[in-house]
Design brief:
By secondary structure, the chain is mainly alpha-helical. The chain is about 65% helix and about 0% strand. It has helices at about 1-15, 25-30, 35-40, 40-55, 65-80, 85-90, 100-105, 110-120, 135-145, 150-160, 165-175, 175-180. It is globular and about 45 Å long.
Length: about 180
């Protein structure tokens, strides 16, 4: 029964694309200038950053922008479905940048947790082809490969002390000229 419920939930998540919903006017947010973004309330600012960086071309980003894009994608997948979902949806290749991005914003406990997981499980985050899935059964097989549930539970505990959204917004405010221009 537990596996059936998991299968149904995963089907819904995979079919929905499970991304945070953005405000209706995504195009306006993506073109907002730095001062407008910095003046926004935290939730609106995060939405504007998602609109700007969620589907960004990694080859066009400077290092600070790459940090933001990486963590927006990482956090959205973690909050929606966990590390297995992040790995199976990581077509742009963000997994290889997560450790450095977490370190860059000062999320040292989260960085240590991520790095320990990939090291202990022999995951080469520069070669994620083995995580590609075609459907729900492929996802279930991926989920069984590694102890994702334990990672996700610890992630949730660490998140209480290292709230990635808050840390990311502080980082963007600190480096706004390099990130938003």
């Amino acid at each position: 029964m537990k596996k059936l419920v998991l299968l149904i939930v995963l089907s819904i998540l995979l079919m929905s694309g499970c991304r945070f919903s953005l405000n209706d006017d995504k195009s306006t947010q993506a073109t907002s200038n730095a001062n407008e973004i910095l003046a926004m309330a935290d939730n609106d600012m995060y939405d504007a950053l998602m609109a700007r960086f969620m589907d960004a071309d990694l080859n066009t980003l400077n290092q600070k922008q790459l940090t933001v894009a990486t963590l927006i994608n990482f956090e959205s997948e973690m909050m929606c479905g966990g590390l297995c979902q992040f790995f199976t949806n990581d077509y742009p290749g963000y997994a290889q940048y997560v450790s450095n991005a977490l370190k860059e914003i000062g999320a040292t406990e989260m960085e240590a947790h991520y790095t320990t997981f990939i090291t202990q499980n022999g995951i080469d985050v520069t070669q994620m082809d083995s995580f590609r899935i075609m459907g729900i059964y492929d996802y279930l097989e991926q989920y069984e490969r590694f102890p994702y549930e334990a990672f996700d539970n610890t992630f949730s505990e660490i998140y209480h002390n290292e709230n990635l959204s808050d840390m990311l917004l502080a980082y963007v405010r600190l480096y706004a000229n390099e990130i938003l221009n």
